Amino acid sequence: MKIHSFNVIPNLPENLKPLAELSQNMWFTWNWDAIMMFVGMDEKLYRRSHRNPKWILGKLDSAKLNELSNNPEFVAKLNAIYQRFLDYKNRTNWYKENGKPSEKNMQVAYFSMEFGIGEGLPMYSGGLGILSGDHLKSASDLGMPLIAVGLLYQKGYIQQVLNRDGWQVERYPENDWANMPVEPARDRDGNPLHIDVPLGNENIKAAVWRVPVGRTSLYLLDTNLPENPPHHRLITEQLYGGDRETRIRQEIVLGLGGVKALRALGMNPTVYHINEGHAAFLLIERIRETMHDRHCSFEEAREIVWASSVFTTHTPVIAGNEHFDPELVRKYMETYVRQMGLSWEFFLSLGKEEEASTTFCMTVLALRLSAYLNGVAKLHGEVSKDMWRKVWPELPYAELPITSITNGIHVPSWISHEMLSLYKKYMMKPNVDSHDDPAEVLDWNKMHDIPDHELWDAHETRKQKLITVVRDRYKRQLARLGADTTVLDDTKDLLSPKMLTIGFARRFATYKRATLIFRNPDRLAAILNNPEMPIQLVFAGKAHQADTAGKELVKTIAKLMDDPRFKGKLVFIEDYNMNVARYMVQGVDVWLNNPTRPMEASGTSGMKSTLNAVLNLSVLDGWWAEAYNTDIGWGIGGSEHYKDDEERDNVESAAICNLIEKEIAPLYYDRAEDGLPHRWISMMKRSVSTLVPFFNTSRMVKEYYQRFYSPAHAITSELLKEGRAGELTAWRNRITENWEHVSIKNVSERIDREVRAGDKLPVKAEVSLGGLSHNDVDAQIYVGKLDAKGELAASQIISMRHTGHHGDVHTYEGEITACSGRQDFALRVLPKHDNIANPYTPLFIAWED
Length: 849
Known about the structure:
Blueprint: H1 18-24, H2 32-41, H3 43-48, H4 53-59, H5 62-69, H6 72-90, H7 94-98, E1 108-111, H8 127-142, E2 146-151, E3 159-162, E4 168-171, E5 183-184, E6 194-199, E7 202-213, E8 216-222, H9 230-233, H10 244-264, E9 271-275, H11 281-294, H12 298-307, E10 309-312, E11 323-324, H13 326-339, H14 344-350, E12 360-361, H15 362-369, E13 372-375, H16 378-388, E14 403-404, H17 411-414, H18 417-427, H19 438-441, H20 452-480, H21 485-490, E15 500-505, H22 521-528, E16 535-540, H23 548-560, E17 570-573, H24 578-587, E18 590-593, H25 605-611, E19 615-619, H26 622-627, E20 633-636, H27 645-668, H28 678-691, H29 697-719, H30 724-738, E21 743-746, E22 760-768, E23 777-786, E24 792-799, E25 801-806, E26 809-817, E27 824-831, E28 846-847
Parallel strand pairs: 1-2, 1-9, 2-8, 9-10, 10-13, 13-14, 15-16, 15-18, 16-17, 18-19, 19-20
Antiparallel strand pairs: 3-4, 5-7, 6-7, 7-8, 11-12, 21-22, 22-26, 23-24, 23-27, 25-26, 27-28
Helix pairs in contact: 8-29, 10-11, 11-12, 12-29, 12-30, 20-24, 24-25
C-alpha cells in the first residue's frame, strides 16, 4: 500500500498571522505576556497541549479564530508582543557591545544529548537537559553566536504513572512533530536536508530539523526515515532508551552526524562545546574533516581540533560516565578509523584512561582531545580532578587541567510572574529594557527595599497555586486508579497554605537519597504533626525506566502517603516535568536536597527555588558547597568521613530532622503581631540578593565566552593561518623526539642559614635540552609545601630566566620570596609555545631527579 502524506497548517486570518511565528519560536517559553496570550486563547487546550502553542493553533476552529481576529484587545496584545519579539531579535545585545572585533566569524557549536527548553518539546530527562536548554536561552539573550545540536526523539522521555502499589509505570507517547515547534532544515537549494552518517560498514540517512530559540537555533538529527532499515530507524526513537548498541549508535549519529549536518548547512563553527561525553565522537569527525580539507596529517589536524574544543563533564561518578566495550566500539568505528589512516590500537588508546583499562570511555576521549575542560561547580571541578588524574599521571593534582564554571539557571524561565513583578517594582536599574533578562536589569542589592508584607503576599500566592495544582493532579491520579467520589472529594482539603511546606523533586537516582528524611519515620511523623508547628512534604520525581532501585524509592514514598502517621502531610506528585518543577520551586517554603556528597555535580533546582525566595536545606555538595552561609539557608554535612554509607545516612537524616525541628520550623512560625515571620522574610531577602546575581546562566555563558570560547577562537584562528598548524605539529614532534634527553640539575647553594620572611633566595639550575632550544621550554620553580601524602601542592610557580648555555646545557636563574613557615620547592621543565591553550595536553614534564 502506497501512502501519501502532507501537512496541514492553520488557516489564520491576516491580522493573526504573527501567531504562527510566535508559536514556532521557543522565545515564548520565557516571556510571560506571550504565554498568557496563548493561555487566553483557550486555557483547556493550552493545558492539553503540554504548553505547545503550535498544537493549539491547529486545534482552534475557524469560528474561534475569527472571534479572536475581531477582538481589538486581543489583536493589540498580539501586535505588541510580536513587536517585542522583533525588537528582541534585532536590537543590540551584550555580545555586540562586548565581543571583540577579531571575532566577526566566531561561531560556537554546542552539542548535548538532551535539551529542556519547554514542556511542548519533550527532549529532556533531568538536570543535564534543563541546563542545556537554559544555556541556549541565555546565549540567545546575550546575542552569543552559538548554535546547538542534538537528536530528535520520536518518543522523547518517559511519562510516569503510579499503579495501585505505588510502582512507577512508564508511558511512551509519540511526539507529533508536525504540531511541534520544529521545522525541516533545508539545504542550499531549499530542499529538506538529509545527510549520510557512517555506521560500521553501512551509511545511514539522517534528517535535520531546526528549532528556533530566540535569536539562535537548535538543530536535531532524526534517523526515523523510510530510507533506513527498521533497526536504524529506532536509533532516535527514545532518549536514553534501548541497549548499549543503541546508545553507541545514538552517540555516533550525534557526534559524527552533527558535524556533518552543520557543514551541510553551510556553517563553519570555530569552537565546539561538548556538553557531557555523549557527543565526543565529534572530535574524531572534526579531525578527519580537517585532514581531508587541509590535506594534513592526523597530528596537525588534532592541534586545530584540540585548540577549538571545550568539554564540560557533569557526572562525578565513574560508572555514570559513558563506557563501551572495545569490541562494540570496533564494530561501529573501525572501518571509519582505518579510513583516516589510524591504527585501531592507537584510536582505542584515545578512549582508555590508562593502558590497562578494559573499556573505551567517551569522557576520556573528550579529555584527551579538548583543550578547555571544566566541571560544573567548584567542588565538582576538584572531584573531577580526582576521578581523571590518571589521564595526566605525572602532573601534580593542583595543576590537572580541569577547572570549573559553576552552573546557573535562566532567570526568565524559572521566576514566577508574581515575584518578577515585585522585583521590577522595587529593583529596576535605570535606563534598561524591563523585558530583558532580570539577571541583567535588576539591582539585586535593592532586595531589602521590598516591604515584608508584599514579599510574603507574593510568596503565599505562589504557595496557593502550588497547592491547587497538587490537588488537581492528585485527584486525577486517584480517578485514574478508580477511587470513589468520597476519596476524590477529600483532595479539596489536601495540604494547607498556612503550613510550613518542604519540597523535594529531582531524578530518583539512588545517590540523591529521596527517602533519607524518612529513615526514622516515627520521629519525622512527630515533627510533621506537631500541633504548634505542623509541616507538610511535597515530593516528585522519576526513576530511569531501567533503574529498579530508583523505582523502589518512588514506591516507598508513594506508599507512605497512606501511612496514618503521614496522612495529609505527604504528597507524591506523579509525572515530574518542567511544569511541575516550576510550580514547586516557586511555591514551597524550603527546598530539600540531600545527595551523597560529592556525587551531586551542581544541582540547579536549588538555584531555581532561591530565585523565588524559597530557602534551601541542602547537603554541602554541588553548588551549595560554594553558596552556603548560615545567613541564607541551612547546610547538612560536609567533608566528614564515615565508616560506611549506613552511618552517613543515619547521621545526615538525623541532622535534617534536627534542623527542621529546632531551627527551621521555629523560625517559620515565629510571627510578629502583624502575623508575618519577619526573621524568615529577612533570610529570604538575603538569600535572593546574595545568590541570584551569580547563580544564573547569563553569568555562566559570559564566563564560558571569556574563559573558553574567545581564547579558543583566537588560538584556532591563528592555527588556521597558512602553515601555523604545521609549525606547531613540527614543534610537538621536536618535543616528543627530544624529551627523553631533558634533565635538570639544581646547582644552587644549599640553604642552611636562618631565613626570614621576605628574604630573596636565589635558585640556579642547569638544564640539558638535547636538541631543543631554550625557546621551546619553560623552566620553573615549583614552590609549595609537602602535604600528608608526600605530594607537593604549589602555592607559587615561578618561571626562571635563561641566562646562557654551554652546548646543550642551559643555565636558568630565579628567586623565591620566603614566607613564614615551612617551604618546599622543586624544579621542572615544561614545553612552551604561544599557540597552545595549556601545556599539559599531551603532557611532557621533566622534574629534577
